[in-house]
Specification:
Organism: Eisenbergiella massiliensis
Number of helices: 11
GO cellular component, one term: signal recognition particle
Family: Belongs to the GTP-binding SRP family. SRP54 subfamily.
Protein name: Signal recognition particle protein
Shape: elongated
Bound molecules: guanosine-5'-diphosphate
Number of strands: 8
Radius of gyration: 21 Å
Oligomer: single chain
Subunit structure: Part of the signal recognition particle protein translocation system, which is composed of SRP and FtsY.
Structural class: alpha/beta
Helix content: 40-55%
Strand order of the largest sheet: 3-2-4-1-5-6-7-8
Amino acid sequence: MAFESLTDKLQNVFKNLRGKGRLTEEDVKTALKEVKMALLEADVNFRVVKQFVKSVEARAIGADVMNGLNPGQMVIKIVNEEMTALMGSETTEIAMQPGKSTTVIMMCGLQGAGKTTTAAKLAGKFKLKGKKPLLVACDIYRPAAIEQLEINAKKQNVDAFSMGTKNKPLDIAKAGMEHAQKNGNNVVIIDTAGRLHIDEEMMQELQEIKENITVHQTLLVVDAMTGQDAVNVAKEFDEKVGVDGVILSKMDGDTRGGAALSIKAVTGKPILYVGMGEKLSDLEQFYPDRMAGRILG
Ligand code: GDP
């Protein structure tokens, strides 16, 4: 993750502001116009940018300058706070079932987004927290996905359940639930099948699993490098299947930051984790304030 271009552009805007002892309304408006351009070039959703600039402007014009800050620093502080709010303000944890109850998590996303890898990364996190996760391989369209899940489960030293490619995803998920119960797994992570594009069949498969199995958390994996496409995918999955949280994969390769800055504002769903590489340890919790800090440089 290196949003160099966005960070550079924002820093330039702020450099001009910092130098000024007093800021006129015109100064603020000019600066925010540049902020707007920088965000649009970073592939942040257009409506999100408009709303963001409006919020910053409303607070910055006529704001009382805090002790110890000059007017320019005050604007930067407001941009930082609004950017943090845009990404959800607080870190959101995956909601777990209380006590000894089993938490069932369904992973979804387009093919290649990083679902199977992320499922194994998450299983590792749960294991570290003392849980006993089970990875259930329901991606019957991609035989390699089943093998990949099993190999990754071994690497993470967690349990995996698969039934090959001949059964329906729902039946595999049901059998996986039974297996978890017998085996004492208190977190079940169902890896579902993606498609290259959003299609009805995929959505129906996911709906069917949710209608027949108590899924506590539906987590969507989207590829950060696809920018606004990732945001649109998130919106559509949420509308059709219902999503509780988003995991933004491949943030290590994202140079723009548009998806990270737009997803929460567009879908209302928090980013829970970000994928930072191909290794199974490369999954980081998402902190909106730290992310805003990184972007602003
Ligand atoms: P799926 O089709 O959604 O299950 O996607 P996979 O889990 O098979 O991942 C597709 C490719 O993306 C694989 O080569 C992964 O190693 C890679 N990948 C997944 N997450 C990340 C990440 O956070 N960073 C990078 N650089 N690669 C990732």
